[in-house]
Amino acid sequence: SALPLTLAGLSVAVYSACDRLIVAYLLGKDAAGIFGVAADLPRQFMVMIASSVAAATVPLVFRSLSENNGETTRERLTESLELLLVVVAPVAVWLALAADQVAGTLVGIDFRAGVSALLPTLVLARFFGIANQFYVQISFQLAERPFMLATQSFLTLVISVILMFALIGGYGLYGAALATLATEAIGFLVALVLMHRAHPVPFELNRLAGVAASAAAMAAAILIARSQVGGTGLVPLVIVSLAGGLAYAAAAWLLNVANVRTLSLRFLRTLNRKALGV
Fold first, then answer.
1. What is the rounded CA–CA span in Å between residue 159 and residue 61?
2. Exposed e or buried b for every residue in 37-55, given b needs 16+ CB within 10 A?
3. Which of 19, 126, 177, 227 is the Cys-Cys partner for 42 at CB 3.0 to 4.6 Å?
4. Are 41 and 95 in contact (CB under 8 A)?
């Protein structure tokens, strides 16, 4: 039925707009401007990348399900989550830990201080949202249970409105960021609970440990680079970003995250054979 999907889509659309409307209502349009920019940065960077990965991997999941191959479906789901986190995790770490440099370069001077203070919390919120939207919610589609998607989306909207009014009063603009984080985390937990009544999706922790270790290496590199580089202009942003990116790539290669080492070595061997004319 199209009705539950329509309700889910409507809930998501209202949810994505109502947070800044509530901030504007309670704190004024200047605060809403700062919150809007801080919320849009992780949405534009992280969600855009996540949707590209999902577009490439999710159809393979449905194809294996249509062939009634449970083991292949499980493997495709695991690969989908691993690839999703491999590309989203470094962007999340970069936005959260290089917030001063990112805001100092990409954001207008009036918004910089507010945006860099809110970014880490909103990045973590968006991370929960991506795991929910682009992985856990696949469960409802695989089980053909659209009412579960509608229920989860509507609950998230209601929780958001309640928490926004509750936390902005006591904590101001940072309360809005905390409300967003709490909403996304609760929404993710609700989806996990509902998932067990639909088509449970796997979480292979040993496969995800490599992503976590690579992200930790990147975080350490960014923090070290940040402590050595002064200022928040373009040059500090490039230095901090390169340090973090190289550390992440090196760790991911050493740990063979998402088979990156295996595939890169295979590619190099193929190039080498072509160069030698074999």
1. 31
2. bbbebbeebbbebbeebbe
3. 126
4. yes
Q: Which residues contact 234 (CB under 8 A, 6 or more apart)?
A: 105
As a whole number, mean pLDDT of residues 119-139 equals 95
User: What torsion do the CA atoms of 200, 64, 91, 150 make, to the nearest 10 degrees?
Assistant: -50
Distance CA 132, CA 124 (A): 13
HSE-up of residue 12 (Cα within 13 Å, Cβ side): 12
d(CA 272, CA 222): 35
Instruction: Name the CA radius of gyration of the chain, rounded.
Output: 21
| Chain position carrying tokens 């190099």 | 268
Q: Indicate the DSSP class of residue 258.
A: G
Cα separation, 167 vs 211, in Å, equals: 33
Please give the Cα distance from 105 to 99 (Å, whole number).
10
This prediction has a pTM of: 0.90
Q: How far is CA 202 from the centre of its chain?
A: 18
Q: Tokens 């973590």 appear where?
A: 124
* Residues 249-274: tens digit of each pLDDT: 999 999 999 888 888 888 888 888 88
Which residue in the block uniquely carries the two structure tokens 């919120």?
125
Residue 237 tokens, joined:
């942003």
Quote the CA–CA distance of 100 and 236 in Å, as a whole number: 10
One-letter amino acid for residue 113 of the chain: A
* Cβ neighbours of residue 85 closer than 8 Å, sequence gap 6 or more: 131, 208, 211
